[in-house]
Specification:
The chain has 642 residues and is α+β, with helices and mostly antiparallel strands.
Length: 642
């Protein structure tokens, strides 16, 4: 599963690292990632990793630093002091440029580390939940068939691609179950002695070339592979043997631990109804299962406390079921809240989490947003928990990345300002020429002057949009109650002359709602949405705005009967500088308006979506009588004022 980090998966971030190196230098050099034990992974053009043996990639110099050609400069990549991620190998003449680009590359690598930690945590949590499910299932197991089916489901989830072998020794002659391709396993009766002889130790693991791999292959069939075998119950007089095969090497420590837990649960199930050999005095009962579950809970609690990513499990009312130190620090959860196991709705953390929980409930999916606490930025993600009554809140520190992007956007603002000053002078000069104050112009001169005016204005609009987009990302949001219907009427009034000139019919149905927002941001968002609808609707067309409430949300829908959006381009509509192919030649624009609008919506805790062609109720609202209208409908969802 690819868990997102600030909206980007770990695979996507690996590609972004490669792209950042390519953008900084041409040629970009080579990026090597340090992997245990003593290997380097070369990141190629699509971000994929190809591990290389260190001695084959380079000669190891003192301290383990690779030594490349004398024409190369080897730049260590440390995501934190003492935390070596790998090396950036560039030409010596590129070294100065590479070190200039190094902060940005390191910021991406830190994000990649966080994303990979999150994916590992996701995988670990899913495996632990699968084991808990197995324990509960086996507590109800009533037969060997049921036992094997439960184990097989768990193996499919925790050990995909591995073969399961279960040998029950307490039945006459023994019974062997194996994971097969068919719908049900076929038990095979056979003597227990070969299994007991092959696996005399309580637990054994092996690689594909060891003698144990050959013995397991003879007993279970198939080729020799890595695997592990565990005696169930008393090692001297076991109730059975649980074996897994299919590894290219040996199972890892984590995999071995998971297999042991599976064996514990299987032994408990056997202890309830299996006929054990004489002399096997100890009978494992339900209390032992509770002890094992308690141990697993302690293990999960320890992992939860130690991970650097914030984890909080809560319900819609803010009652805390689980919280670690990292989430308390990121959200500013007080000691009183932690002690009383309750997020207070009057505090910033409580307000932010409850707003996101409501949004996740309404959308039925995970939602996320940046969050600032005492000058440090985190990314908050709210994930609905299975069952729908609880929510997992994950926080991740993005402060370094945020600061780096702020510096980048400040640089964009400075450059834009420096470009706009001479551009304004060009526009003023062109305006003077066009007005005739500097003398009459002939037809060719007038055409050239008009061309200068149009293109200069387009550049100015592009610069304005770039600066506006950078401000949307980084300006602090201070929300207040805003009468949104009144704001819609104000934006409509400013478009009145254009609507009249294009003979566009305007429709509106507005509830008097008050939303939680920021006036300049909301105004910019509405100007973009309504302005786009008016701009792309043809002469004699229709444009309308509907505003209504559902639960704690205000829903605003801007509808038009313009050319619509090609189906294969809708997924790219909110990408910077993208413009639909059916309008880019007819109507000028920068391709940033919708990007700005969506980012504003998300910064205000809402969302912006699009439908094209329009639905039947949209067409009825516009009063369309002709069939086949394409059009588009942009729907904004934003929290109502509390």
């Amino acid at each position: 599963m690819d868990r997102v980090s600030g909206g980007v998966t770990a695979n996507g971030l690996r590609k972004a690292v490669v792209d950042a190196a390519a953008a900084a230098l041409q040629p970009p050099g080579r990026l090597y990632r340090l992997l245990p034990p003593d290997t380097l992974a070369l990141l190629d053009g699509d971000g994929a990793q190809h591990p290389l043996v260190l001695t084959e990639a380079a000669e190891a110099a003192p301290g383990g630093k690779p030594k490349f050609s004398t024409a190369d400069e080897v730049i260590p990549l440390e995501t934190d002091p003492g935390a070596l991620w790998g090396y950036w190998v560039v030409r010596r003449e590129q070294a100065e440029g590479a070190r200039t680009a190094l902060p940005g590359l390191l910021a991406l690598l830190r994000r990649l580390d966080h994303a990979e930690e999150m994916e590992k945590l996701d995988s670990l949590n899913r495996d632990l939940l699968a084991l808990f499910d197995l324990g509960a299932d086996l507590s109800r197991a009533a037969s060997p068939d049921h036992l094997f089916e439960s184990l097989r489901r768990a193996v499919h989830q925790v050990f995909p691609g591995k073969a399961l072998h279960l040998v029950l020794l307490g039945l006459e002659g023994g019974r062997c179950y194996q994971l097969t391709e068919g719908p049900r396993p076929e038990p095979a009766t056979g003597p227990a002695a070969p299994w007991l002889k092959a696996f005399p130790a309580p637990f054994a693991s092996w690689g594909a070339t060891s003698p144990s791999a050959v013995q397991a292959a003879k007993l279970a069939g198939g080729g020799a592979t890595g695997g592990a075998a565990l005696r169930l119950g008393d090692p001297a007089l076991p109730r059975g043997i649980l074996a897994l095969t299919g590894w290219s090497g040996e199972p890892s420590e984590v995999e071995v631990e998971f297999l042991r837990r599976m064996g514990d649960f299987a032994a408990l199930a056997l202890g309830r109804w299996e006929v054990a050999p004489a002399g096997n005095a100890k009978s494992l009962q339900d209390p032992d299962l509770l002890v094992l579950l308690s141990q697993e809970k302690e293990r999960l609690d320890y992992i939860t406390r130690c991970v650097p990513i914030g984890l909080l499990l809560t319900d819609a009312d803010g009652v805390i079921a689980l919280a670690n130190d990292a989430v308390a620090k990121a959200l500013g959860v007080t000691d009183v809240e932690m002690r009383e196991r309750k997020l207070f709705g009057s505090r910033p953390a409580g307000r932010a989490v409850r707003g996101l929980v409501e949004k996740a409930t309404a959308e039925g999916k995970a939602v996320s947003t940046p969050f600032e606490m005492e000058g440090r930025w985190s990314q908050i993600e709210v994930i609905p928990w299975p069952g729908g009554k609880q929510f997992l809140i994950v926080t991740q520190d993005i402060h370094d990345w945020f600061q780096l992007n702020r510096l980048k956007e400040d640089l964009i603002t400075i450059i834009s300002h420096e470009v706009k000053n001479p551009l304004t002078a060009v526009l003023n000069a062109a305006h003077l020429l066009a007005s005739g104050r500097a003398g009459e112009l002939n037809e060719a001169q007038s055409r050239i002057t008009q061309l200068v005016q149009e293109n200069s204005q387009q550049i100015k609009s592009l610069l304005d949009d770039v600066v506006r987009l950078s401000r949307v990302y980084h300006l602090s949001v201070k929300t207040e109650p805003v009468a949104i219907a009144q704001m819609v009427r104000s934006v409509h009034a400013r478009s009145a002359s254009t609507l009249k000139g294009k003979v566009i019919t305007w429709r509106e149905s507005l509830e008097e709602l008050t939303v939680q927002g920021e006036v300049p941001m909301l105004e910019s968002l509405l100007v973009n949405l309504i302005g786009n609808a008016v701009k792309y609707t043809g002469i004699g067309g229709h444009v309308g705005v509907r505003l209504w409430s559902e639960g704690s949300w205000a829903r605003l829908r801007v509808v038009d009967d313009g050319p619509g959006i090609p189906a294969d381009e809708k997924s790219r509509l909110f990408s910077p500088f993208f413009r639909a192919s059916n309008v880019r030649e007819q109507v000028s624009g920068t391709g940033l308006g919708l990007v700005i609008a969506r980012n504003i919506a998300e910064r205000l805790g809402g969302s912006l979506t699009v439908n094209s062609p329009i639905a039947a109720d949209d067409a009825a609202f516009l009063g369309l009588t002709r069939a086949g209208a394409k059009g588009s409908a942009f729907q904004l969802e934003i929290p109502l004022a509390r």
